[in-house]
Design a protein that fits this description.
α4 runs antiparallel to α5. Strands 1-2 form a two-stranded antiparallel ribbon. It has one domain: Tetratricopeptide repeat domain (Serine Threonine Protein Phosphatase 5, Tetratricopeptide repeat), CATH 1.25.40. The relative contact order is 0.14. It has about 120 residues and is mainly alpha-helical. It has seven helices and two strands, in the order αββαααααα. Helix content is about 70%, strand content about 5%.
């Protein structure tokens, strides 16, 4: 069991052809956001998007991580995709809704959302 957990933490994959649901990728990405390891967080959010491409919030998280890592153009592309899926997405209401998220993670996301060009 420990070996499997280490493999999941390292790769985001359950091994043996199994993949995590988007929630697992989000959790692994959020940990890396909190640690300010933005380049490490972005691929987990990308995997979350692949696992559930119709869940628009995942694009916001990916855009935030990319922006915080300095990949602004890529973040803006993901933000455009988010707005195609969810034209009414706004930073303020999302952050208000996400009050249950640890404050430091919310702040990293807020800065990244704005850097990616998402509307207030």
């Amino acid at each position: 069991m420990r070996r499997r957990r280490r493999e999941i933490a390292r790769t985001g994959s359950g091994g043996e052809g199994r993949d995590l649901h988007h929630e697992g990728h989000v959790a692994l990405g959020a940990v890396r956001l909190r640690l300010r390891r933005y380049d490490d967080a972005a691929p987990y959010f990308a995997k979350a998007v692949q696992a559930n491409p119709r869940f628009s919030v995942l694009y916001a998280l990916q855009a935030a991580a990319l922006a915080r890592a300095g990949h602004i153009d890529e973040a803006k592309g993901i933000a455009r995709r988010l707005l195609e899926l969810e034209p009414t997405f706004r930073v303020g209401p999302f952050l208000d809704f996400a009050g249950f998220v640890k404050p430091e993670i919310r702040e990293h996301c807020a800065v990244g959302f704005r850097e990616a060009g998402l509307p207030e």
